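Working notes for the structural subgroup meeting. M.R. asked for a predicted model of this chain before we commit to crystallization trials. I am recording the input and output together here so anyone reviewing the notebook later can reproduce the run.

Input as submitted:
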Amino acid sequence: MVRLSICIATYNRADVIAQTLESILPQLREGVELLVVDGASPDATESVVNSQFKGRIDCRYVRLPAKGGLDQDYCLAVEHAQGEYCWLMTDDDVLKPHAINRVMEALQANPDLLVVNAEVAGPDLKTILTARLLKIKGNREFGLSQGAELLALAGSLLSFIGAVVVRRDVWLTRDPKPYLGSEFVHVGMIFQAPLERGARLLAQPQVRIRYGRALWSPRAFEIWMFKWPQLVWGLPAISDEAKKAVCPRNPWKRTVALAVMKAMGCYTLAEYRQWLKPLKLGTFTRLRLAGIAAFPDSLFNALMQMLLPLVIPGAKGTLLNLRQSRFDYRRRWPVLRNRKPS
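Returned structure, recorded in C-alpha cell form:
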C-alpha cells in the first residue's frame, strides 16, 4: 500500500534535478514512492534520473513520447501515481530534512489537501531570501466551507506547486481541461469544488525553493499579469474579497507592478505591443503604459536597484531578479561591472 506519491514533472532539468532527487531519496520510507514524469527531455535528464533510481523499487521514471506542457504532465503524473496522496514536487527545489515524516504525520488526519509552507533561497540554494513564504506561526485547519479563507491566506503560496499534497481520488474526479495551459492547473483543481474533508496548512517550511531558475521566466509578464490573475478570478464560488487578497484582477494596470516587470526585463515595447496595445484603453492609460515600456531598460533597472532597498528593505527576491535581468546595468555599463551590490 502506497500512502504518498511524490510526483515530479520535469523537462530539460539535467543540471538541477539530481540535487532535488538527492534531497528526497534518503527520506523515502515504507508507504512512500517517488515518481518522475519526463516530458521527452532532449538533454541528459533521463540519464541523470535513471542513475539516481538505479536499484530502487520505490522509485519510477516515466518518459513521455512528447512534450505536453507543465500542466498536462502533472496531470499525467497523478494518473501514474499509486499513492493515496500526491505531493506535486518541483524538479529544481529540494526537501528540507525530515519533510516526508512531517507530511506523513500531518496526513494522519486524512484531509483532502495538505499545504506545506516553503522557504526561498538563491540559485545556489544556500542564501536564504525568505525564511517563510507564508508568514504564519502555527498550523491551520480549513473546513468544507472555508475555501475562500484558504485562498485568501495561502493563495500566493499555492502558486508554488511544490506546496501541494492532494488526495489522489479528489484530483481524479475533477476536470483539468479549463486550466491546461494556465501554468497553475493545481490551483484550479483545488478550488474547482469544495474539499469535503477540508484542508490543513503546515506553517513550518518543508521545501526550499530555488529562486530565479523558473523555466517560464521569459514569459513572466504573460504569466503574472494575465494567466495567474485570470485563473484566480475565474475560480467558482470564491468571493471577490478572497481573490483580491491574492492578486488584483488586472495587475498590469498598476504602475508599481509594471515598473518591477520593466526593471526585470520582462516588460518592453514588445510585451506592450503584444499584450496591452490591443486592449481598449483610455488615451492617458495607453500613454502611461507605453511610456513605461519605452523607458531605457538599463537605466530603469539601475534606478530600481537603487530605490528598491529603500522602499521595500526585505525584497531580496525581487532584487535578485533585477540583478539577473538581461538589462542589469552592470552588464550594459562595463565601467560599473565590478561595483559591489548594495
